[in-house]
Structure formats: structure tokens, C-alpha cells
Amino acid sequence: MRGKKRGKHYRISTLNLQKIALILGFFAILAIFAVAQETNQSNTTSSNLTNISTEPVLLPIVDISLNSPQKLTRGESFEVEVNIKNSGSGAAKIVDVNLQLPKGIEIDSRNGECDILDPNSTCTITFSLRSSLSTSLGKNYLKVVVNYEA
């Protein structure tokens, strides 16, 4: 609203007062319409009403951690431990756990299985790996892929 400031008070013109009254009247009409509409809806028969269930959805949250050597020598065998934890509120069915390996590293064996992972439980799979002489020097990365269903 525009008015001339005088101390801590505003002087409001007659035109602005008319605008305020018009706006307040509009909101009063909207409020009456909303009450009337709500009254009409409450008079409907109970056969039109639907009950909605508000049960919580329990979902798993799968966290993966990896224990592996920081350095290795080409041609050397080593182990990688994959820890899978369900920190969610629902069970997780572990479908598959795979390693994506760089060129020159192969899986010799795998120990451990994960099936159903309840909330706040952990399972461990240990992979025995072998690097060949063709493994690239420098940093090599392996990727863990866990497929699961809720």
C-alpha cells in the first residue's frame, strides 16, 4: 500500500481503503463458498467414501564397502573383501554381486553368498584375485556391482 510516511504511521488514501475493502470482501465471499462446498460434501452418502491406508513403506538401503590391498605386484595373487550392509528398514534380496576388473586381473575363486539381507545386517563375500604380468602399471580400479530387489 502506498501512503505518505509520517513518523511511525502511514496515511492511507480513500482510494486505497476502497481497494482494501474490495479485496477483503472478495476473500469473505471465497470463505463462504468454501464453507458451503464443504457442507455439501459432508452430506454425501458413505458409499462414495474410500478408506486410505497409511502403512509405512519399508525399503532397503544397501551400502557397500571394500577391503583390498593398496599396492600389489604384477603376477601376485590377492584377496578383495566385499561387505554389503542393509541400513534400510526393509529386507533386500541380493540377486547378484560382481566385480568389474581391469585388464590383467582375473578372479580365481569366490567365497560367501548373500541371499536375504534383513535390516541392519551385513554379509561378506571374499574374492581371490590374480594379477598377470600384463596388468597395467599405475593405478588400477575395480568396480563392485550389487543387484538387489526390495
Structure at a glance:
The protein has 150 residues and is α+β, with helices and mostly antiparallel strands. It is built from 1 helix and 9 strands; from the N terminus they run ββαβββββββ.
| Annotated CATH homologous superfamily of the largest domain | Mu homology domain, subdomain B
Biggest sheet record: 4 strands, antiparallel
Distinct helical segment count: 1
- Biggest β-sheet: strands ordered side by side in the sheet: 3-4-8-6
Question: Remind me, CATH topology of the largest domain?
Answer: Immunoglobulin-like
Question: Which term fits the overall shape?
Answer: elongated
Give start-end ranges of low-pLDDT stretches: 29-39
Helicity, as a percent range: 10-25%
Terminus-to-terminus distance: 56 Å
- Give average pLDDT, whole number: 79
Number of structural units classed as domains: 2
Provide the structure class: alpha+beta
Total number of beta strands: 9
CATH C-level label of the largest domain: Mainly Beta
Backbone CA Rg: 34 Å
Report strand %.
35-45%
Q: Under the CATH scheme, which architecture of the largest domain would be assigned? A: Sandwich
Sequence of secondary-structure elements: EEHEEEEEEE
